[in-house]
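User: My instructor asked us to take a sequence, write out its structure as tokens, and then describe one feature of it. I'm not sure where to start. Here is the sequence I was given:
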Amino acid sequence: MQSCNLATVHVAVQHTADNISELLVKITDDWDITAKVHTVVTDSGANMVSAVRKTCLKHLQCFAHTLNLIVKDSIKADTSLESILEKCGAIVRFFHHSTKATDKLKEVQNQLQLPQHRLMQAVDTRWNSVLYMLERLYEQQQAITTALSLLGRNSLCLNGEEWSHITEAFEALRPFEEATKEVSAEQYVTISKVIPLVCLLQCSAGQKDNTLASQLEAQCKRRFQNIEHNHILAASTFLDIRFKNIAFCDIRNVETIKSRIIGDLQAMGCSEREMSSSEASTSASVTASTSAECSASLGGLWQEFDTRVLASQSNRTENTDAYIEMCRYMEEKVIPRSEDCLLWWKKK
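Assistant: Let's start with the prediction itself. The structure tokens for your sequence are:
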């Protein structure tokens, strides 16, 4: 697997779908790869989605970016958490902007034998920074409360209910952070993990009884409601020997995927036959005539059997081969998730 940067371009014109579409085609034409592009992945911006559609290329929305939107929208919907986050941000800014406060925090950390970690501030562009801020505050809870009290800033102290809300929040967010990291790698296959990760995230959020978890579950259902009907994602998951049909939330969708893949196999067989039709027809006619001549000349006891063999061979079509290939694949054992699915396919 490789990742290459083909172009970095300053877009001086308006970022409309038409302008972006023209630029994308120009880049792929310059590299002479337009016919080879399998899928284009972008964020969820309407202009980007529309631009790719105008190129007539297949499009996928970035899974990590969608997770980012889900978490941001869920936090906004949890009004009590938003209020707590503002207070957390104020605490971090207080210790960052005051040397005296920073020194006092270090002193208390040392006395309580806590790690002398610096507090982390959340930033709007990265949702996981909210998680890191909450985890660090919780780690330093005792030191922060003590230092604020000694500095006469009791108004910034969080109460027990707020600390409890913070605990619930980062426990609900951790699976989304794990999923984001999982699909942000470049050195191994990630597209086939999207469907199983969505199932796992919904399950994880559904098992927690708090407002943020409920919002996360609802947002996942809304944004991923038809994800198993996306053929690129579903076929990638099904053909990943680590997942096959096990990873689907709705097992009924597996039969749809199997049928379409069998259709693709049959189409590939027809295409290959057409490409070498002249060679194949010549070879087949020679083989058939030779076999027929042998059967006719030999005659005798085996003549009827040889005729049936020829008939059975002619009945083997792309349809039959495709179904046999699918059956063979379904009989294969799922391999451990840590193994390389591309290497498995290379061997097979």
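For the description part of your assignment, you could build on this observation: Strands lie at 40-42, 59-61. Try explaining in your own words what that tells you about the chain.
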